[in-house]
Design a protein that fits this description.
The complex is a heterodimer of chains A (about 100) and B (about 200). In chain A, about 75% of the residues lie in helices and about 0% in strands. In chain A, helix 2 runs antiparallel to helix 3. Chain B is mainly alpha-helical and about 200 residues long. The longest helix of chain B is centred in the N-terminal third of the chain and has 26 residues. Chain B is extended and about 80 Å long. Classes of the chains: A mainly alpha (about 100), B mainly alpha (about 200). The interface between A and B is large, with 74 and 90 residues.
């Protein structure tokens, strides 16, 4: 069935698999760089689900417009996030999120 | 097997394998390559879903800018600094990862298509997902968020520069670089104490 024609559910299932992998990676890994990459995975999965649902409504491209804005926000987020990682590395000399405990007294 | 089904299978396998590579890699450079694989796979799926404009944007912005930025920061930190071991709370992390995966599998079973209530795609019209169609939508219905996105990008870039640049103490002049040895740390050619190559000094 999956070879002859794809259903909407196949795409949503794939998007949920990628989103779950990203969420697990964000929670389990403590390297900040890999956590940022996991956030990108989750945003990509959401984009895939948006475009797949938008495909059902032929001629209306609102979902693709939304995915476009998500891509723009993700690019801004990763630029600021990597700048914070650089600054944090200069401050503490490491990239593990466990080391970000300066506010603990 | 149709060409579209083949594209779907290849792209979905590539994106899932790349995503697993992101979270399982110890070296962040390999994680970045996994992220690139996922992004290219999802761009192929966008093509399959007749979203040509978004596929191009995905390749340009994600594969061309975001992954390159990740690799750039990795090179700036150094491969040894970025690939640190994560030893703390290993068991708790494993247990939480397994629990979350089990929960997600439950949700996916609820989403699995049953016979009789599936959604099939109708053939797409010629303008669906083209640059013209999405651009018209962006500049009519989405003009306000579009302009706000430009402002967001400007603010993000300026903020990233402000956060990432090296701070110098006020009133203290920057030290001038006295010898090329301070600029180039790597021993490309054997040098004596004054920083000159040995062949020249002898």
């Amino acid at each position: 069935m999956i070879l002859t024609g794809q259903l909407l559910e196949h795409y949503v299932l794939l998007a949920s698999v990628i989103f779950t992998i990203g969420a697990v990676g964000f929670l389990v890994r403590s390297n900040i760089l890999i956590q940022l990459m996991s956030i990108e995975l989750m945003l990509n999965a959401v984009n895939l689900a948006l475009v797949a649902y938008n495909r059902v409504h032929d001629g209306n491209m609102g979902g693709q417009m939304f995915a476009f804005f998500i891509i723009a926000v993700a690019a801004a987020e990763v630029a600021v996030g990597l700048a914070i990682v650089l600054s944090f590395y200069r401050l503490r000399g490491g990239v593990l999120s466990d080391e970000a405990d300066s506010l603990r007294h | 097997m149709s060409a579209g089904g083949f594209l779907f299978i290849v792209c979905s396998i590539a994106s899932v394998v790349g995503a697993l590579g992101v979270i399982l890699a110890r070296n962040p450079v390999r994680a970045a390559v996994g992220l690139l694989t996922t992004i290219i796979g999802i761009a192929g799926l966008f093509l399959k879903l007749s979203a040509q404009f978004l596929a191009a944007i995905q390749l340009i912005v994600y594969a061309g800018a975001v992954v390159v930025l990740f690799v750039f920061v990795l090179m700036l930190l150094g491969a040894d600094a970025a690939a640190v071991r994560e030893d703390r709370a290993r068991l708790a992390k494993m247990v939480s990862g397994v629990l979350l995966a089990v929960m997600a599998v439950g949700v996916m079973f609820a989403l699995t298509p049953h016979a009789g209530q599936v959604t099939r795609f109708a053939p797409a019209s010629a303008t669906h997902g083209t640059v013209e169609g999405v651009g018209t939508m962006l500049f009519t219905d989405g003009i306000v968020p579009f302009e706000l996105a430009t402002a967001l990008l400007i603010v993000a870039v300026v903020g990233a520069i402000a956060v990432a640049r090296t701070k110098h103490a006020p009133g203290k002049k920057r030290m001038a670089v006295r010898s090329p040895k301070e600029l180039f740390h790597g021993p490309l050619v054997p040098r004596d104490d004054s920083g000159r190559p040995k062949e020249l000094s002898t």
